[in-house]
Amino acid sequence: MVLTLENRSTASAPKHAIATPSVSRSLALLGGAAGFAVAFAAAYLLFVHTAGGQQVENGAVRNAQLGQSTSDWSQPLRQVDMIVLLGAASVSIVLISLVRRRFSLGVAGLIALAGPVVVSQILKLYVLERPDLGEHRVASHNSFPSGHVTAAMAVVVALAIVLPRRFRSFVLIAGGFGVAWVAAATVSLGWHRFSDTIGGCLLVAAFGFAVAAVLSRRHLARVAVTPAVIAAVAPLLFVLAGYAVLSTATSGPAQFVAAMVLGAVSAIALAGFQLWQLRRVVFDIP
């Protein structure tokens, strides 16, 4: 009888697995920040610097300024003092960082809060212009990006950074709905257009991802290339999708409703998108 002995080392040796291409988490976050910045610029150029963009948005503004479409639910925004809100958020960030003994995290949170708010005002008041493309029936001054939406989203992102990671999902999800109300209310009150609201969200996200990239640079975590590419490309797709949907509305009332809905949906979607990208990022540095 002939016995055949199996070569155990050969039989048990695992097959070579195909390595999944990956990049450092910090680099992926920087790519995401760049993607949000590109989408911000695209929103401005597409909605503000083209006749088609101005036309699809001005119908909503005219309808809101008639005074017949403003809903009661948006009126409380008139009573909100954004300076007080930002001041309270700043104090909260400092206190949280002191309680957690994370001074650097507090500084990062303040940068994520103040950075986009200051930049949005500089861009809106001194840098960006709204060209005259023949739409004379509405205010011609530049309103891009929305200061209210920028401030609201900045508070949410800053708190998501400075609070312990177990609170991050709740802050971004609940905060996203709060920002959605602010975005829709600014359109309802005739203060802003849809592009102004999504521009504010994109600006905050760019700052948030940049801050997250700096905070995560000490960690060696890596992410697959595909999610990193999605993070860089998806923000621009949000803008293009918003333009495509808003362009389907042909009457003033339809444009008004579409602008409100798009502003709210975009705020929630961008908050959720940030949660998807930031949920595993470690911010707990000394």
Uncertain runs are: 1-11
What does the largest sheet look like?
A: 2 strands, antiparallel
Residue share in β-strands: under 5%
Q: What order do the strands of the largest sheet run in, or round the barrel if closed? A: 1-2
Through-space gap between termini: 71 Å
Describe this structure in words.
The protein has 10 helices and 2 strands; from the N terminus they run H-E-H-H-H-H-H-H-H-E-H-H. It has 286 residues and is mostly helical. It has one domain. Strands 1-2 form a two-stranded antiparallel sheet. Helix 2 runs antiparallel to helix 8 (194-215), helix 6 (147-162) runs antiparallel to helix 7 (168-188) and helix 9 (225-247) packs antiparallel against helix 10. The longest helix is centred in the last third of the chain and has 27 residues, at 252-278. The radius of gyration is 23 Å and the shape is globular. The termini are far apart. The relative contact order is 0.19.
Quick structural gist:
The chain has 286 residues and is mainly α.
